Amino acid sequence: xSNNNARRxxxxxxxxxxxxxxxxxxxxxxxxxxxVINYVDRGAISYAAEGIMxxxxxxxxxxxxxxxxxxxxYMFGALIGGFLADKMGPKxxxxxxxxxxxxxxxxxxxxxxxxxxxTGSALVGFxxxxxxxxxxxxxxxxTVNRTVANWATVKERGFMSAVGLLGTPLGALLTxxxxxxxxTLTGSWxxxxxxxxxxxxxxxxxWLRIFTNRPDSNPRVSRAELRTIRSQDEVLAVETTIxxxxxxxxxxxxxxxxxxxxxAIGYFAFMYVNFMILTWTPRYLQSEFGFxxxxxxxxxxxxxxxxxxxxxxxxxxxxxxxxRTGSLWIARSGFAMVSLALTTTCFLFIPxxxxxxxxxxxxxxxxxxxxxxxxxxxxxxxxxxPERTGTFGGxxxxxxxxxxxxxxxxxxxxxxxxxxxxxxxxxxxxxGIGVIAMALVRPGRLGVSAIRSTEAGV
Length: 458
Fold this sequence. Notes:
Elements: H1 2-12, H2 23-47, H3 49-56, H4 60-87, H5 90-119, H6 122-137, H7 140-151, H8 157-164, H9 167-186, H10 190-210, H11 223-230, H12 258-289, H13 293-299, H14 302-325, H15 328-349, H16 356-371, H17 374-384, H18 389-400, H19 402-418, H20 421-439, H21 448-455
Helix pairs in contact: 2-7, 2-9, 2-10, 2-12, 4-5, 4-6, 4-7, 4-18, 4-19, 5-6, 5-7, 5-10, 7-8, 7-18, 8-14, 8-17, 9-13, 9-14, 12-16, 12-17, 12-18, 12-19, 12-20, 14-15, 14-16, 15-16, 15-17, 15-20, 17-18, 19-20
């Protein structure tokens, strides 16, 4: 009888939890882990360039196409994923996307041989696998934004968006040592993709055990934490003309909003820098400065070190500017403009440098500045249309990820025709366009045309 009473007391007595009232940060940590895996998956192929190009006799222009194929699928994956994250919920989207890309990243090892066997062209095989792989990875950041919108407090929105995006520079930073290490350890570029695919499956098994679409339905979230997340007392007074929260928005209202369209163009500039560095830096260092693969494990990390720090501080700076000035425009648009203008200066200056040390240093500074407003582009969507965060976030990502095609493909043709110097000038032009675009963004203001269309019941 005493044993039964003891068992009953054990059940009735709540167990202390390490993350009591902070479980949303566990969710955020899980997001960071999978975005790191996601980014390493897409970037590892750049470190396999020498092996793949040699095995299938690909020239720089063809290799640029191989890298760019990913972007075609990625754009549409981002677009569809944002809509599905809203409609089906982020948990469903995380499951489908992670399963798909983990299978397809392994499939890349067969791409060239299948292409030759079926069509006589390795390029066709890489096109099929890279495009579908991009389609599977595309929903990631729209789903991150939908998850953050569901789980973040208003006060923490900018910072949690920034932490959620930490996987971008951190994944890029870790791509070099992971890819080079695995190639060196296994003696084959193919094993890299097998191991990365397995990592995705392991993460998903853990994620499905702890994640729910909303904190309200998660047994690990305490009542106190739920009150904190849902509290509206933290909403800061700012100058804004945000519409009534009950408005009904159609997907095409995105294109009626100057704020959302130009924010997406600003994000395109950010993404162009990311994909140029991620896809072409390893080949650039090998061709221009004669570095061997064994050196790239640490050299490839350098452009991303500062970005890992600034992506976090950028979210805090944006939130601080909002509190300090009461202006969403200064906190989001103005902050992004200054960062992109400084990024432009750095990349236009690189062709004048002759030292690998100097090039990597300026590239690292430029990339760090570029990453400062990373969270801004996503937060603008939440500020402006929180009820359509997934759909409009996906559309923003779709436009921005034109850079996933443009950066590697255009760079391939520039390198073939004029050498590597031109790729930095093209990057500076892209970020200069971003400066102009962000000047036209008014966070929190959807736009008169969109408001009128929703009032008319369109």
